[in-house]
Every structure is written in C-alpha cells, then in structure tokens.
Amino acid sequence: MSNPTAAMLVIGDEILTGRTRDANMHYLAGELTGRGIRLCEARVVRDDHAAIVAAIRELSGAVDHLFTSGGIGPTHDDITADAVADAFGAAIDVREDARQILVEHYARTGLELNDARLRMARIPEGAALIDNPVSAAPGFTLRNVHVLAGVPAIFQAMVSSVLPTLTGGDPLLSQMIDVNRGEGEIAGPLKALAAQFPELEFGSYPYQRHGAHGTQLVVRGTDAGRLASAMVALSDLVKAP
Amino acid sequence: MSNPTAAMLVIGDEILTGRTRDANMHYLAGELTGRGIRLCEARVVRDDHAAIVAAIRELSGAVDHLFTSGGIGPTHDDITADAVADAFGAAIDVREDARQILVEHYARTGLELNDARLRMARIPEGAALIDNPVSAAPGFTLRNVHVLAGVPAIFQAMVSSVLPTLTGGDPLLSQMIDVNRGEGEIAGPLKALAAQFPELEFGSYPYQRHGAHGTQLVVRGTDAGRLASAMVALSDLVKAP
C-alpha cells in the first residue's frame, strides 16, 4: 500500500481509569479512511511527561502523520504541548499569535484571560497553529505531529481544519455482506478467496442479532474494479450450500 | 504507587479503519480500576503478525499484566494466538484440552467442527485456558499475557473468568464535583491544591451542558482519608467567589 500512514496518540488518565470512553479514535479512524490515509496504530497513555514524550518520538518516526488528542487545556494536568516540544528539542513559550487569539476571545466573552488560560498560548517554536472555531484556544502542528484538543466537539473541528491540508491517498473503499451463518462455516472458502485477491483485505466479524448468529464479511481496498470482482465471487461463495 | 500495573492490546483492522468502535478498552479500564490494577497504556494495532508480536513483547515486559482483545476466531485474519506464541518462542498447535471443549460444544449445537473451527483450539505450549461461557472457544493466559476474544459479550465473560485469579491492589477511589465555571477559572487554585496532596491525582474535565460551560473535577487515589480531606478543601475552593 502506498497510501500515506498515520498514528494516533490519546493522552489522558480519564480514559485509562475508565472515567471517560474515548470517542476521538473512532472519529479520526473514519475520517482518515475516507481520505485514503491509513491509520496504522493508536495508543492511549497517561498524563505522564516521559510516557508522552516517548510515544510521540516513536510514533512520529514510524508514520507520515501523528495526531494527538487531549491535554492542551489550562489546568496543571494539561502537559501535551510541553511534551511535544521536548520530544523534538523545540523551545516553548507563550507565543504572540496564539496570545492574540485568546485576548480577542476573552474580550468577546467578558471572561478574564488569567495565567492559567494564558498557558493555552504556549506553542512550540516552529509550529503552525490549528484553528479552533469552538473555543478559540488553538491546536498546533509541529513537524508531522498534529496536536488537537480532547473534547470531542473541538477535536472534530480541529480535524476539519487539518485534514484538507494533508495529501490524501486513494480512498480506502469497503463493501460488506451479511451472512446468516457462523464464521466457522465460511472460514475455509473465505481464506481461499482472500488468497485470490492479495491486494484486498478480507475481514470477518461475527454478530448475534435477534438471537441468531451471523457473520459480516468486509472487503477493503483501493481498486474499485477488483473490489467489485471480489464481491461477485463472495456472493457466489456464500450462496453455495 | 505500588498497585499492580496492566496494559491492553486491541488487535484488529476493523477498529483502525473506523468500521467498529472499540468497546473493550473502556470496559476493561473500569474493571481494572475497581480492583486496584492500574491500566498504564492501551494500544490498537492492525491484523499484522509482526506488529502484534512487537507490541506483545514490549507491553508484556513493561507491566504486570497484558490483556489482548481480538483475533482468536476461526478465520484467516485471526492470528493472535500464533503471534503470542511467537512473541515468547513457544510452540503452538491444536491442544487436546481445548479441542475437547470444542468437540463437546459443537456436538451440543449440531454444527460441524471443521478445520477452520479447530483452529480455535490452537493454544501455545504452557498456556492456561480461559473459560468462555458464551461460545466455548477458550482464551488463554501465557506468562503474563491474557488473550481474550474481541466480541464484547465474550470479552467481558472472559474478563470475569480472569480477574478473580489476579492479585489486586488497593482500589483506586475517585470522587468528583461539578462546577458551573470554565476550567480556566479554577486552574490556578486547583494546581495549588494538587500540590498539597501529592499522593492524589487531580483531573479537570470541561463540559458543556444545556449551553452552559462547566468543569468536572475528579480526585483519585487509594487513601480514603486523604481523599476525603481533599474533597473538603476542594469544596471550599470552588465555593470561593
């Protein structure tokens, strides 16, 4: 596959203690797939400086784009920006362009731009700001790392700001077919079919619906013609007694 | 913290393409927290042998317990058992005790125990089986790696089989308080309070409810007395004008 690759790093104790169920990974996965960018790995780490730095270094070196989620707010547990700066040895301080965005936002809302809120203008040297149309405080891109907020509505808005700027690949197409048999019934022929279409990926996902077992077969790939041929063959396969 | 530590490895293209929203991570996080086992990291990797082997080696070496989810069914994309065996240089083949479980299950259901289904009896040498009361095909524990199914109902049943066998720690307690102010307002005093209770963790999570901004403050720790003291101080703090 020559499609661009991506990884995601979710940062936050609230996910790993079970307080919050992460929603951003699933959202980003769908958005990237639609643009032909292949999400290769996702990780969740704690609000721990060393853990975040290590994950950023490793993942950003392994893929074309790393997206992070969480840890860029005004409180003491928001340590992502400093960790990203450290990961690349970049200086970090309150930056004038980011500060100006906050000044205007808080002037408009009548709230005080205090020291805590000013932390949200700490941006690593060399980073480009990512627009936040929801609550103003910007994300940023440093090298191939896109640093986004954790609140889902803001995360999604920032994804919409970033994605159009990235080079996509051939969209990853998928087609599926539901079969009212257990996956053990069709595993053998499915494996043989998958071998005939090495450029496609065949997934098999069991489900239970109204008490009956069934299997959803999913075929994924970037070549629409081959995908169509595979679906014809798959239909024949599951029709067989 | 001297509580036991854990990591989770979710295996499956369906999560990373956005087809399926993972539910097992959130479930396991809650169960582990309740037993005083600290989930330090979670990862999602593709159905790729090398990626699974590398993640198993790294994570199992870093924590007391590694839990995996997915990839132990009958189809060609179910490659977790072989990857776990490879990660530790263990031999793997159809094992008689696991085969017997499948023989009885398929005799009962009237379905054929074909070659594909028999793959679910491939268990690494030295592993202990994990009971699957839902669909029979067992999970297994090899060293400190607990290999569980990806289907949420089966995953949860297997977690129930495994967790009582593990040594827990002091339960991680948490208390929370909702404040109808933005987190930027309370970030300063919250940071000062957190410094007074270094053995506790203070989290701050913004929310929007009925159009109004608010913040949920969460305090976590294993010492009930200190937690109670912190909550008293926190109530005073958020009452202040």
From TrEMBL, chains A, B:
InterPro entries on file: CinA, FLAD1_M, MoaB/Mog-like_dom_sf, MoaB/Mog_dom
Gene3D superfamilies registered for this protein in UniProt: MoaB/Mog-like domain
Superkingdom of the organism of origin: Bacteria
Residue ranges occupied by any MoaB/Mog domain in the UniProt entry: 7-169
Classification via Pfam families: FLAD1_M, MoCF_biosynth
SUPFAM superfamilies linked to this entry: Molybdenum cofactor biosynthesis proteins
PANTHER family cross-referenced by the UniProt entry: NICOTINAMIDE-NUCLEOTIDE AMIDOHYDROLASE PNCC, NMN AMIDOHYDROLASE-LIKE PROTEIN YFAY
Protein name, entry field: Competence/damage-inducible protein A
